[in-house]
Amino acid sequence: MLTLTITNASEIFSGPFNLTQAIAFTFFVGSMAMMAATAFFWLEMRNVDAKWRTSMMVSGLITFIAAVHYFYMRDYFVSTGESPTFFRYVDWLLTVPLMCVEFYLITKKVGGKISTMWKLIAASVFMLVTGYIGEAIYGGQTQSWIWGGISGLGHFYIIYLVWAGEVAQLAKNAGGAVLKANKALAWFVLAGWAIYPLGYILGTQGGFIGINFGVDAGFMDVIYNIGDAVNKIGFGLVIYTLAVSDTKELNAAK
Ligand SMILES: *C/C=C(C)/C=C/C=C(C)/C=C/C1=C(C)CCCC1(C)C
Hints:
Blueprint: H1 6-14, H2 19-43, H3 50-80, H4 85-108, H5 114-137, H6 144-163, H7 166-174, H8 176-192, H9 195-203, H10 219-253
Helix pairs in contact: 1-2, 2-3, 2-10, 3-4, 3-10, 4-5, 5-6, 6-8, 7-8, 8-10, 9-10
The protein binds retinal (RET).
The site of retinal (RET) has 17 residues, from helix 4, helix 5, helix 6, helix 9 and helix 10.
């Protein structure tokens, strides 16, 4: 097992810019950030009202699963110099459906149906499996963009469900903290998740509808790592913030 010492990290800032080291560094920072976020979400569970605890637990589970994968991904990258596509998609295949579960958890008390949750999960699995085929099998060929496009359909369907479909309708009827939480999470799905297709476009041969931007494919991992920090930690922090403010309101009403 190769280890990245802190000297490598400092070289990024002192020596000439080295993309390989920069990528390895974002994997390293990613694992620490995911671990810290996990401790935070789990320890803060007792400071929020009972109805928010499962959501907080799932937020911590998402960052915990990511932390473990980041250790593996960093190691794989440092040892082989290659993008850890397989670990990346295993991580997403576990964490993205859990984010779909979060939507169910916040709408459950106001009539959220388990069938809606399965629609979200099915769409996310479709998005990730087709994305994986595009990246792992066709990543070096022009047709990679077609798989990216097919994967995008799954993403659009999730956007539809949380912005206008069943999930949005429930949240609208419920109002209050549920509406706020759904709005915030829906923004993550629309804007935060859009970071990923950007990484895919830059990192695969087919680029955007066949137009390749000629960027070093290594940037894909940097972009994915930024996306994960925003979406996994940010998503959890939004739930935490809402849980805290809702708990305050509930306590004031007592
Ligand atoms: C924690 C990990 C998350 C939130 C990962 C989300 C991943 C996506 C939204 C990926 C989407 C993709 C497309 C919409 C098209 C190109 C292929 C993907 C898989 C990168």
